[in-house]
């Protein structure tokens, strides 16, 4: 039977630590974007008020990236390259925390304030999906500074196994 192959992503919640972000009055509303390489950019449909330090905002947003052979060849080839090329730098799902300008200041741009990553290669190596896990959000202006935690679920293992099988059969 041909299962629909997909990567399931859930963006559960976001909490911020004490940082320039929590101190910045112009940053009020936040949403999260998720992308696989340069394919898909899915974003939470709502931007939520920036949480006070120590509290969380809850998106509970789920999305699916289809990677079946028939309709998503490019995505599948990208997954193959992750498994076959150990030194590929872009082996991760990238989550971007974005500041959404307030309604009354629409002339301001959306601004990327932080990035978080889930390594698909690591999911495959450990043979374990990521379920409701806190991942570090790094400051967009200082990649060594952690500005918060994003709670995510990434279920990619069965799709990666399928792609891996296909690699062996090629």
TrEMBL record:
**GO annotations of cellular component type:** photoreceptor connecting cilium
Classification via PANTHER family: PROTEIN FANTOM, RETINITIS PIGMENTOSA GTPASE REGULATOR-INTERACTING PROTEIN
Query: A GO term (biological process) for this protein?
Result: retinal rod cell development
One annotated GO molecular function is: thromboxane A2 receptor binding
InterPro entries given for it?
C2_domain_sf (IPR035892), RPGRIP1_C (IPR041091), RPGRIP1_fam (IPR031139)
RPGRIP1 C-terminal domain mapped to chain residues: 5-166
Q: What protein name applies here?
A: FTM protein
Where on the tree of life does the source sit, at the highest rank?
A: Eukaryota
Biological source species: Urocynchramus pylzowi
């Amino acid at each position: 039977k041909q299962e629909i192959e997909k990567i399931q992503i859930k963006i559960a919640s976001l909490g911020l630590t004490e940082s320039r972000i929590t101190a910045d009055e112009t940053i009020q509303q936040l949403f999260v974007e998720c992308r696989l390489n340069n394919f898909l950019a899915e974003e939470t449909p709502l931007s939520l008020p920036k949480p006070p330090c120590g509290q969380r905002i809850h998106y509970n947003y789920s999305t699916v990236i289809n990677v079946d052979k028939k309709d998503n060849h490019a995505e599948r080839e990208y997954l193959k390259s992750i498994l076959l090329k150990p030194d590929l730098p872009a082996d991760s799902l990238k989550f971007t925390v974005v500041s959404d300008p307030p309604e009354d200041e629409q002339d301001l741009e959306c601004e990327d304030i932080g990035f978080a990553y889930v390594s698909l290669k690591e999911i495959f190596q450990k043979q374990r999906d990521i379920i409701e896990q806190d991942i570090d959000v790094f400051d967009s202006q200082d990649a060594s500074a952690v500005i918060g935690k994003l709670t995510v679920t990434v279920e990619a293992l069965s799709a990666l196994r399928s792609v891996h099988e296909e690699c062996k059969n090629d």
